[in-house]
Structure formats: structure tokens, C-alpha cells
Write a structure and sequence with these properties.
The chain is built from 5 helices and 12 strands. By secondary structure, the protein is α/β, with parallel strands linked by helices. The longest helix has 17 residues.
Length: 194
């Protein structure tokens, strides 16, 4: 990881040496662990989430990632009350960026997963959640934030290349469908200019 003090094209890096994005609101989650010795960040995984399903209130999602979700609010919340998960970053419908886990650590976002023969993608990936659902279009502001953050990640973690940006469905195809058919991969990847 390059130091935040270094400049890229005259601009300071947005990710500091501890792996925290300086443009994000920090909400540290306990749902994380150290990366295994020798594990290097080399994969970016795009997810979606909505709680309750198909409702886009980011407060419930944040509470879920912080293990503080009030399960009495909705019957669905009881079904997920035993889960302890968190992405590194969450992008809300208005493009707001919230960080739960430092990028140098493993966030618990991928579950049972594999990519190019390597299992347990949490060990070597960064997970970004978008507030949304498989069949609901994402917002322009979400794409703008996602593109910006992806560029920051690729600058600080050069093993993350265009070919190593995937959806959750790509690394857990029997379990997951996100970010779903509503995610415009062409728009996103074209905007990266890489």
C-alpha cells in the first residue's frame, strides 16, 4: 500500500496507510479479521444489499454491519439476526460513502467463495456494497462514487486490475446473484478508463 502522503498526478491519495478512505464516513465494524500472512489484496467484489429486501434505507444496513440491528422492526431482520457480516465500503443511493473495515484487513463480505482456483475470497479481496437490489437500477451518484473509489483502490492496490473486478455472483455463483442484472457493468468499467 502506498502512503497517503505520496502524490499521484499531484493529488494526495484518498486511502491512508491504514487502509481507510479519507472521503468516507467511518463506522468501524467488529466483523473483520487480519488478512492471512502473505495475502495481498488482488480482487474487488461488488455486492448489493437492501434491508428489508427492496427497501433502500441505509440506516438498517449500517446497523446490520455493526451488529446493532433491531430485529423487532421487521420479520425479515429475525432471519438474519445470527449473521455477522460486513463489507469494507458501502455506497448509498445518494452516493454517500461509508467505511466499515480498513482495506488492509479482511471484511466478512464474500462468504464461501472462490476466484481462479483460490478459495475464501475474503482473504485477498475488497468488498463494496451498493444499497440496491438485483432488478432495480442503481443511481447515477452510486456509479460516480463507485468509479471514484475503484480508481482509488486500483491506485493503492495495483494487483486489483480490470480483470479482477467481479460481482458477488461471480465468486459464489451457487449462492448469490448480486449485483444483479440491473448493474451496468459496461457503464462502470468504461468509466474507469483502465
Amino acid at each position: 500500500l502506498k502512503s497517503q502522503d505520496q502524490l499521484i498526478s499531484g493529488q494526495p491519495l484518498m486511502i491512508n496507510s491504514n487502509g481507510w478512505h479519507t472521503g468516507a464516513r467511518s463506522e468501524p465494524s467488529p466483523n473483520c479479521s487480519d488478512r492471512p500472512n502473505g495475502a495481498k489484496v488482488s480482487l474487488l467484489v461488488i455486492h448489493n444489499i437492501s434491508l428489508p429486501p427492496d427497501q433502500f434505507d441505509s440506516n438498517y444496513v449500517c446497523d446490520f454491519f455493526l451488529n446493532s440491528l433491531d430485529v423487532s422492526i421487521d420479520p425479515y431482520f429475525k432471519k438474519i439476526s445470527n449473521l455477522h457480516v460486513s463489507p469494507h465500503l458501502l455506497i448509498g443511493r445518494k452516493g454517500e460513502l461509508i467505511q466499515f473495515v480498513g482495506l488492509n484487513d479482511s471484511a466478512w463480505h464474500a462468504g464461501k467463495s472462490f476466484f481462479e482456483g483460490d478459495e475464501n475470497c475474503n482473504d485477498f479481496s475488497i468488498g463494496i456494497e451498493l444499497i440496491g437490489a438485483d432488478n432495480t437500477p442503481y443511481t447515477d451518484k452510486q456509479y460516480q462514487t463507485l468509479v471514484s473509489v475503484t480508481r482509488d483502490v486500483m491506485t493503492c492496490y495495483p494487483l486489483v486490475t480490470r480483470n479482477r473486478i467481479v460481482g458477488h455472483s461471480d465468486i459464489a455463483p451457487e449462492r448469490k446473484t448480486d449485483p444483479g442484472p440491473s448493474f451496468d457493468w459496461k457503464r462502470y468499467l468504461s468509466a474507469l478508463n483502465v
